[in-house]
Amino acid sequence: GIHRAYLEAGANVIETNTFGANRLVLAEYGLEERTAEINAAAARLAVQERNRYAATAPHPVFVAGSLGPGTKLPSLGQADFDTVHTSYNQQAQGLLKGSVDLFIIETSQDLLQIKAAILAVKDAMADSCVRLPLIVSVTVETNGALLVGSDIHTVGAALLPMDIDILGINCATGPQEMRPHIQELSR
Question: Tens of pLDDT along 20-71?
Fold first, then answer.
């Protein structure tokens, strides 16, 4: 129903309901062994609604596989890089099995977490012999930095060489507060 509502409102892209569906988060509920399965099922649901709507849609519609920040940040020592990478890789594999059109790593707060997620998604795509667009969206706090302290200039400099397709900023603050960071990112 949520996917349908977004499509009926005119969305060009809908996201899978997998923001918190990586292995580390699912382990908090004893579901870590079902990471790929849960992500594939969520992707199939979104794709099913997209396909149902696409037959009469006035514009193309795509499904983005959503990968949220998780609950363990490597820069804070809550999980090591390899564990975070494995967690995102299993999630990305499931999203690919469910036939997403692109990936969005979103609400990102930690450059190490972002890098682990990017590499995990790229590894999953390489294993599946596909190349899909990859979006990264970071959360800039009111102090002008990500949760772990990186400013938007540092984020851009660190992620530019990683060959992502889109880098954006999302909802930690309001639109007015985001303006200077968007301007800096645009520069």
Answer: 999 999 999 999 999 999 999 999 999 999 999 998 889 999 999 999 999 9
Return the exposure string of 85-110: e unless at least 16 CB atoms fall within 10 Å of the residue's CB, then b.
bbbbbbbbbbbbbbbbbbbbbbbbbb
Check if the beta carbon of residue 24 is closer than 8 Å to that of residue 72. Answer: yes
- Angle, CA 45 vertex, CA 2 and CA 54 arms, to 5°: 80
DSSP-assigned beta bridge partners for residue 13: 62
* Residue 183: partners with Cβ closer than 8 Å, 6 or more residues away: none
Half-sphere exposure of 65 (CA within 13 A, CB side): 33
Residue 44 to residue 51: CA distance in whole angstroms = 10
- What residue type is assigned to position 177 of the chain? E
* Position 89, amino acid: N
| DSSP 8-state symbol, 27 | H
Give burial (CB, 10 Å; 0-12/13-18/19+) of 174. exposed
Angle at 143 between CA 137 and CA 149, to 5 degrees: 65
Count CB-CB contacts under 10 A for residue 63: 26
Please determine, for residue 171, whether its predicted confidence score (pLDDT) is greater than 80: no
Q: Which stretches of the chain are DSSP H helices?
A: 2-8, 23-27, 35-54, 81-97, 111-128, 152-159, 175-186
pTM of the model: 0.95
